[in-house]
């Protein structure tokens, strides 16, 4: 009986001194050689330091998690619109980053979407409160890239458009917030971040 009480007491003390980290723990970085787990706890166990899920941005610099690549997986081409939108713990998908300096599609929002997707969305929508640092970056002060230089290409319906690919939609088509050309409210409406610089908007 006494041994059981001692074990329980040790477990409670260990839990009480465990350090919160990352977006779930007040954006605190772990100290020593501790990794920040996907659940927001510091530690050096395999569960804390799992390279597939640990939060590199909030792990200690000397930890095995932080010593891995600190950026999310690169996209196939930095100037190609990624084929993903969902990210985070429910899907296990990392945001790849795209465009100049991987500014676009770099943060995994609290709702599990990669962004910002275009140059009219504020980065705080994706990189701010609740951003999932284990599945992308969570920096809200990265400078917005300069507008693309050189003549823009033109594509038809279903093609990629916007600043990542320096491409406009053909006449009569809208460039959606997700960087695709088309018509209708999903492409042309302000609520869906229609990009007037890259096509028509209603």
From TrEMBL:
Record's keyword annotation contains Signal: yes
A Pfam cross-reference name: Chitin_bind_1
Disulfide cysteine pairs (residue numbers): 21-36, 30-42, 35-49, 169-181, 174-188
Extent of the signal sequence: 1-18
GO molecular function: chitin binding
Keyword entries, A-Z: Chitin-binding, Disulfide bond, Signal
Domain Chitin-binding type-1: 18-67, 158-202
Name of the molecule in the record: Chitin-binding type-1 domain-containing protein
């Amino acid at each position: 009986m006494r041994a059981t009480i001692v074990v329980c007491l040790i477990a409670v003390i260990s839990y009480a001194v465990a350090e919160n980290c990352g977006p779930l723990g007040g954006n605190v970085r772990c100290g020593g050689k501790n990794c920040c787990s996907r659940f927001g706890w510091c530690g050096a166990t395999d569960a804390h330091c799992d390279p597939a899920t640990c939060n590199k941005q909030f792990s200690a610099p000397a930890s095995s998690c932080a010593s891995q690549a600190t950026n999310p997986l690169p996209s196939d081409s930095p100037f190609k619109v990624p084929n993903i939108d969902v990210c985070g713990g429910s899907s296990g998908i990392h945001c790849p980053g795209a465009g100049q300096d991987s500014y676009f599609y770099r943060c995994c929002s609290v709702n599990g979407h990669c962004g910002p997707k275009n140059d009219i969305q504020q980065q705080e929508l994706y990189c701010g409160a609740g951003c999932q640092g284990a599945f992308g970056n969570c920096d809200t002060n990265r400078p917005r890239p300069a507008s693309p230089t050189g003549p823009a290409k033109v594509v038809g319906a279903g093609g990629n458009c916007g600043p990542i690919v320096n491409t406009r939609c053909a006449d009569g088509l809208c460039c959606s917030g997700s960087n695709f050309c088309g018509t209708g409210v999903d492409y042309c409406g302000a609520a869906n971040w229609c990009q007037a610089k890259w096509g028509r908007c209603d």
